[in-house]
């Protein structure tokens, strides 16, 4: 019986690895295309682009509750449902969006599936791991997903550069990848779980962690929303540019994340988050004032460098997790506090882009990044409040 169980577990791990490949491929197709799709098909302005982030991020804020609605299902089945919802949203974006309101409907559908699948990927990966090898397993799955996303970026670049591919085709391919992921999950054996409804946790002791998440939510949405919009609206860059930047950023990001993890262990969270903040100020200046620095045709290359650097710095969010892991009262506090952090993050990220769009429209895009630089300086001050402490317990699942 044990031999059969191990064989089935290996089979399920293979299926989940294929699932990760399909989800990585979908991500590489979708991510470099969406912003140009909004601009080229719907011709929206800065305020509308900022306002779209509220409905797009709302499912992230509600992910604890949507997961709770499916609490009667095992993780593998929740992940399968999430992939099907994801596919529905992608196909709707490609073929059933004759007007802007329909775009919002399918974008929300996509977002529900995307945010629902995020926590499931880690929990399934951990369940399929050998004891004490959870980090190694998640790393393997992440590497496969990253490699597949590179293929997606390359397909987008080749498609738009050489064969004039349509956005509907890109979304259809991404949707088919999500369906293929759902099929793989269907053939996996659901594992019995005693998982309880996920709760949020708020403690005064963790106020600095919550505050760091507020700043992360504000910083995240300024760059996710308006950095691509600068390239599209100010520098008139096509979708092939985003595919190429995605390729470069992902390839550089693989060794960068490994080096960053070692740096956190060696120098501590205070130094890493402080360094992140200082570099973000520099990036904000590059985004906002590249054209005013007298660089001529080199200005666009400065913005490209800022875009890639900005993407790399998102990995610094792991320092916030390791900081929390060092200060929690018990291992049981870690997951619910992280969930509270995600909820706070999304609460901020839903509202910031709308006001950023208004600021762009009234004063110019430079002022959006001036505000982002001020947020980075506040983040720097918050980093100095971090007290370096050694963990009081050994938590082998912190990285999950």
UniProtKB/TrEMBL annotation:
Where are the membrane-spanning stretches?
12-30, 58-73, 166-187, 208-232, 238-259, 271-289, 295-316, 337-361, 367-384
Q: How does it sit in the membrane?
A: Multi-pass membrane protein
| Gene Ontology MF term list | transmembrane transporter activity
The UniProt keywords, alphabetically, are:
Membrane, Transmembrane, Transmembrane helix
Pfam families tied to this protein: MFS_1
Subcellular localization is given as:
Cell membrane
Q: Which GO terms describe its cellular component?
A: plasma membrane
Primary location group: membrane
Q: What is this protein called?
A: Predicted arabinose efflux permease, MFS family
């Amino acid at each position: 019986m044990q031999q059969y169980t191990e064989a089935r577990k290996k089979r399920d791990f293979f299926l989940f690895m294929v699932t990760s490949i399909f989800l990585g491929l979908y991500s590489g197709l979708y991510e470099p295309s969406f912003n140009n799709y909004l601009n080229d098909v719907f011709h929206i302005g800065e305020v509308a682009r900022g306002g779209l982030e509220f409905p797009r991020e709302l499912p992230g804020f509600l992910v604890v509750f949507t997961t709770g609605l499916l609490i009667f299902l095992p993780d593998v089945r929740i992940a399968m449902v999430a992939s099907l919802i994801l596919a529905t949203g992608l196909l709707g974006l490609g073929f059933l969006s004759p007007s802007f309101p329909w775009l919002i409907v399918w974008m929300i559908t996509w977002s529900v599936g995307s945010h629902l699948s995020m926590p499931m990927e880690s929990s399934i990966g951990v369940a399929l791991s050998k004891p004490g090898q959870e980090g190694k397993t998640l790393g393997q799955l992440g590497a496969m997903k990253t490699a597949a996303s590179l293929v997606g970026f390359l397909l987008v670049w080749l498609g738009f550069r050489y064969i004039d591919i349509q956005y509907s085709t890109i979304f259809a391919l991404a949707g088919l990848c999500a369906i293929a992921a759902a099929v793989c999950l269907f053939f996996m054996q659901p594992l019995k779980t005693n998982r309880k409804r996920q709760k949020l946790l708020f403690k005064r002791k963790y106020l600095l962690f919550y505050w760091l998440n507020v700043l992360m939510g504000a910083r995240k949405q300024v760059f996710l929303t308006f950095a691509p919009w600068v390239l599209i609206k100010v520098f008139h860059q096509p979708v092939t540019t985003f595919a190429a930047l995605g390729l470069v950023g992902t390839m550089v990001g693989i060794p960068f994340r490994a080096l960053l993890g070692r740096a956190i262990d060696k120098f501590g969270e205070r130094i890493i988050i402080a360094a992140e903040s200082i570099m973000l100020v520099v990036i904000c200046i590059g985004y906002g004032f590249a054209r005013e620095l007298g660089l001529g045709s080199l200005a666009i290359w400065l913005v490209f460098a800022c875009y890639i650097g900005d993407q790399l710095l998102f990995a610094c969010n792991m320092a916030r997790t390791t900081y929390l892991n060092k200060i929690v009262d018990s291992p049981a506090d870690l997951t619910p506090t992280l969930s509270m952090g995600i909820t706070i993050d999304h609460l901020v990220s839903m509202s910031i882009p709308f006001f950023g769009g208004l600021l762009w429209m009234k004063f110019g895009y430079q002022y959006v990044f001036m505000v982002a630089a001020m947020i980075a300086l506040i983040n720097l001050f918050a980093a100095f409040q971090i007290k370096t402490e050694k963990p009081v317990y050994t938590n082998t699942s912190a990285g999950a």
